[in-house]
Structure formats: structure tokens, C-alpha cells
Design brief:
mainly alpha, about 210 residues, 10 helices
Length: about 210
């Protein structure tokens, strides 16, 4: 699990996310104009890493539907067979895109663990607060997994587009800044912020 890099990613993201949360509380909902003019947006966009972190945030938000589909059923959060299938698929697709299959698999392994972290947090929340339990059960096969597959395709493309930016030493701070902005724009709560921190460690190519 690379504890040192994980702690570093969580520490930097926490600082950025705190600033983003304060800005959100002071300024109210973001508009298209404020998004275009915000210095944080300009800085993150300049390095192109928000194309990655936005997809990580979107994938984490889908964890809510995955959890809702599984909660109260015999379907476990951990699904080793499905996880192995995903990693095998992204390895093959990464090779076709000229990317390092091991590096890409590491990124997606972190996404899987981040998703499960959010699912466990939601299960605990719903156990403690029955009135917050989901009232609908999404269809994993027909609704959730196709959405996850679309994000997988987008994330592979984003990893290819940002390959150079992710391979230089400034990647870490730039990634944290981009993640903080994505957390702000997607209105991530504390649980999903923790998930986003878990999703980051392998994105910078120098960390593989």
C-alpha cells in the first residue's frame, strides 16, 4: 500500500481541501464565471491534471450507487474476481495506448481501494442512521458498471494526455492542487475527501 506516499498525499490534499471548503462556505455555490476566473482553477488547468482528478471524483461519487446496490444484500464490498478483471483489462488497454501497464494498474488499484473505502463508510453511516439508508437499489450490471466503464475509458485517455506532466517532480503538489479543486467543484464531503486522498498515490508516474 505504500504508506509513506499515501500519508503525504492525504496531508497535502487535506490542506488544499480545507482551503477549498472555506472558500465554498464563504462564497456560496460556484458559477461558471467564478470557475473560469478563480486562480486555483487557472493554476490547476495550466498543468492539465484536473482532467484526471475530476474523473477520480466522479468515480468516487459512483461509490454511493455501488454501496446502495449492495447494502442489505449478500453481495460483499470486496469482489476480488471483478477487481482482477478490471486490472487485467486496464493493463491490456494501457499497453495499446503506449502507457506502462504496471503503472496504470497501480492507479486503478488505488481507485478500487478508494471506492471500497467510501462504500464501507456509507455502510457504517447507514447502520448508525437508519433514516439515511437508500430507498432505491441501483442495478449494478445495467446502471452502475456502464457508468464506471465510461469513466475508465476517460481516465485512461486522461492518463495518456497527462503522461508528461505526471512524470516530473512537481507532479505531487500540482496533483494535490488539482484534487483540491475537483473536491471543491464536486462538493465532496469528508468521507469522499478521504476517498480522494486514497485515490491519489499512484497518479504521479514517479511514484510507481
Amino acid at each position: 500500500m505504500r504508506p509513506r506516499r499515501l500519508r503525504s498525499a492525504l496531508t497535502v490534499l487535506s490542506a488544499v481541501a480545507t482551503a477549498a471548503t472555506l472558500a465554498l462556505g464563504q462564497a456560496g455555490p460556484a458559477t461558471a464565471d467564478t470557475q473560469r476566473s478563480a486562480p486555483a482553477r487557472q493554476a490547476a488547468a495550466a498543468h492539465g491534471l484536473t482532467s484526471v482528478t475530476d474523473l477520480l471524483a466522479q468515480r468516487l461519487l459512483l461509490a454511493d450507487k455501488v454501496a446502495a446496490a449492495k447494502y442489505g444484500t449478500a453481495t460483499p464490498i470486496d469482489d476480488p474476481a471483478r477487481e482482477a478483471q478490471i486490472l487485467e483489462d486496464v493493463r491490456a488497454r494501457a499497453a495499446g495506448l503506449g502507457l506502462d501497464p504496471d503503472g496504470v494498474a497501480a492507479v486503478f488499484r488505488d481507485q478500487i481501494e478508494a471506492n471500497k473505502l467510501v462504500q464501507r463508510g456509507l455502510f457504517a453511516r447507514w447502520d448508525a442512521n437508519p433514516d439515511e439508508r437508500p430507498t432505491e437499489r441501483p442495478d449494478l450490471a445495467k446502471e452502475v458498471r456502464p457508468a464506471l466503464d465510461r469513466i475508465t475509458t476517460g481516465l485512461l485517455a486522461a492518463l495518456r494526455e497527462t503522461e508528461r506532466a505526471r512524470g516530473v517532480p512537481p507532479c505531487g503538489p500540482r496533483l494535490a492542487a488539482a484534487a483540491g479543486w475537483s473536491a471543491y467543484t464536486h462538493r465532496l464531503d469528508v468521507l469522499h475527501l478521504e476517498g480522494l486522498g486514497r485515490a491519489l498515490p499512484s497518479v504521479c508516474a514517479g511514484s510507481w
